[in-house]
Amino acid sequence: MDIIKIVGIGLITVIATMLIKPIKPEMSIIIGLCGGILILVQTINYAVDIVDAFWGIVNKTGLDAGLLKTLLKIIGVGYLTEFSANMCYDAGSSGIADKILFAGKVIILVIALPIVTSIIEIIVEILP
Description:
The protein is mainly alpha-helical. The protein has helices at residues 2-20, 25-61, 65-90, 94-126.
């Protein structure tokens, strides 16, 4: 089970950062970053499976592939933003983390704008 590996990596990373932080604070940040990256690598295969499942749905239903691409971009930006911001919080840079979160929200809105525009156009056509 991969979750056992992920939890193990997480716990080892936390313990290592707690032990190293009083001695070399800069190394604890690097250890935390490496642990986070290892956890991310462990989850990549699951992300690929999810994307494949979405493509299967698109192929079976005939939905617009552009819509799926946009949705996957939004999800990707959201996860990457959250992951990066959490790494900044862990390193004690809450100001940078907040700015990353803000930028991620703005970028998600920009990516979603064509979908929102299409929905508004459909609503306007339906209304008398």
